From TrEMBL:
Residues 76-312 form the AB hydrolase-1 domain. GO terms for molecular function: monoacylglycerol lipase activity; short-chain carboxylesterase activity. The active site is at residues 153, 279, 306. Pfam families: Abhydrolase_1. Transmembrane segments: none annotated. Belongs to the AB hydrolase superfamily. AB hydrolase 4 family. The lineage of its organism: Bacteria, Pseudomonadati, Pseudomonadota, Gammaproteobacteria, Kangiellales. Keywords: Hydrolase. This is Alpha/beta hydrolase fold protein.
Length: 333
């Protein structure tokens, strides 16, 4: 792919806040939550849990907020790994789109949010079929005038893979937006192993907590406590890959949700991908390997970290501005 096909877009961090780790960590800063909940009060007040029935008895949890107009477009938002419908970026983006006039569904992947009890089998990142089925079911049930799919990090990876399968699954997406999508999982693990150690500790803490919650709910199925004693994400991934039994090696597992190269060649929906050159978790250069197609537009910033893009000292995120700009066309007749 030519570098000319990558569009640079202007994001400016507040003075003293351009560091990639600062941006990435500020985005998850707990002090943001109270302010965001106040801003999103009306949206949250009007939200209700919806359990989506997929094939083979699989159930996924979602939270639906209807717009005032029955003709409103619908936005489906997918969080990142070990995030949920309550992740700060989800609340912020959902609130932005809601006030634009969208109906909102914040979809939880299996074993995320408060959904561990819904399915006996553990989550892994190749469980694409159920997410495709959930999006298809949502469209079938709500029959929106237009449908936006938006994902962050691993959720961005899922959103792009769903979009790649949309035509085959009979899903009529109007637009897809992926923010800092996971591109090459094997490379991401290396980044986590060699980058700022706090990221590894953060994800391992949340992942182990999730697995232990699953064990408590299904004690007859899981006894993974010995495996959970490791502090190595690679070791734990290898052990769980062996447990799943669907993959010979950890690289086979990673290859299943790697989206580099021509893996997204079936996309025929207008799709926007936003990445930062200083993302400490995802190597932006994978964006150059994606297929050259008029349907995929790639935007690259110099700074922003991983799903950070904090734009001021009130800790508001520029991601909301970007998604708003990208979504306005769905509100036009």
């Amino acid at each position: 792919m030519s570098t000319n096909s990558i569009q640079t877009t202007q994001y400016k961090a507040p003075f003293g806040c351009s560091n990639e780790h600062f941006q990435s960590l500020l985005a998850t800063f707990k002090l943001r939550r109270n302010n965001l909940k106040k801003q999103a009060h009306t949206m949250l007040l009007n939200s209700e849990e919806r359990i989506i029935e997929c094939e083979d008895g699989i159930k996924l949890q979602s939270f639906y907020t209807p717009a005032a107009s029955s003709e409103a477009p619908l936005a489906i938002l997918i969080h990142g790994w070990e995030g949920s419908h309550e992740s700060l970026y989800q609340l912020s983006t959902a609130n932005t789109l809601y006030h634009l006039g969208f109906s909102i569904i914040r979809l939880n992947l299996r074993d995320h949010g408060t959904s561990h009890h819904l399915n006996a089998e553990l989550f892994h990142s190749n469980r694409l079929d159920e997410v495709v089925q959930a999006v298809a079911r949502i469209e079938q049930d709500f029959k929106p005038s237009k449908l936006l799919l938006c994902g962050f990090s691993l959720g961005g990876n899922f959103a792009l893979r769903v979009t790649n399968r949309a035509k085959q699954a009979g899903i009529s997406l109007t637009k897809t937006i992926a923010v800092c999508p996971a591109l090459d999982p094997a490379d991401i693990l290396i980044k986590l192993e060699t980058s700022f150690s706090l990221y590894m500790k953060y994800f391992m803490h949340k992942w182990k907590r999730s697995i232990r919650k699953k064990q408590e709910l299904f004690p007859d199925l899981y006894d993974l406590e010995e495996d959970l004693q490791t502090d190595s994400m690679r070791d734990l991934t290898e052990k769980l890959v062996q447990y799943y039994g669907d993959y010979q090696t950890i690289n086979d597992y990673f290859d299943g949700y790697n989206i580099c190269g021509d893996r997204l060649a079936q996309i025929d929906t207008p799709t926007t991908i936003l990445m930062s050159k200083d993302d400490p978790i995802i190597d932006y250069q994978g964006i150059y390997t994606l297929p050259e197609t008029p349907y995929i537009k790639r935007y690259l910033t110099e700074h922003g970290g991983h799903c950070g893009y904090i734009k001021n000292y009130k800790l508001d995120s520029w991601i909301d501005d970007f998604i708003k700009e990208q979504s306005l066309s769905l509100l036009q007749d």
